[in-house]
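Appendix B. Chain record.
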Amino acid sequence: MFNYKNTAIHYTDTGKGNAVVLVHGFLEDASMWQKTAKELAKRYRVITVDLLGHGKSECYGYIHTMEDQADMLFALISHLRLRKISIVGHSMGGYVALAFAELYPDNVRSLVLLNASAQADSEERKINRGRAIEVVKKNSDAFIQMATRNLFDDKAHKKFKKEIAVFTTQALQTPVQGIIAALEGMKTRMDREALLHFGPYPKLMIASENDTIIPIKDIKEQVENTDVSLEIVPGGHVSTIEQFQKVLDILSAFLKKNG
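Structure tokens predicted for this chain:
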């Protein structure tokens, strides 16, 4: 555990070498990276962290902005005496990684966005986040069940039944305050597409063909006229479950060159 502004933050730290920080998404926690971290730790020092209000990390406020999360990450890597990191963010973790890269560019060795967009929420998406917050206040378990179910298509639900059950059980541990604070933070996040064009470090986006949360066409548009590498994998939003080996291979190849 690490103490950040009187808030307990849970993290793991394994392996030796250049540092790779793995950042989970909304309703997830550091455990989603367990298999990935185990493999990457054979070559790198791998840090996983529970974001504010998720997993075993405490809530910090009513809104956890992406900048709040990034500041917490910076405090953690400073505590661990790390200077440069490769940062990999899944979904909301990608938004946090982008905020970190904007606030602390000198500390970024390379940046990977996994099923994540550099764009801000559309007006429609902001309205939907507001509606989600109202649902969470009334029945958080029903919201989590619905939200996690929508991350996977019917084929995935059959093929990865056990993994999705574990994923959902873990998501149900997320405190109501943590869910609302994250939704508020995502709703108000900045557009950071400029980083894809001007970020002075190697950048990779991994997108899924059938991602219903982050449409593939949006990602293709974002990487146009940039030096961002784009890798496309089959399946839906949680590619660490649906395409574990493919994602690991892509990450390993990118980090071997840029990590």
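Further analysis of this model is presented in Appendix C.
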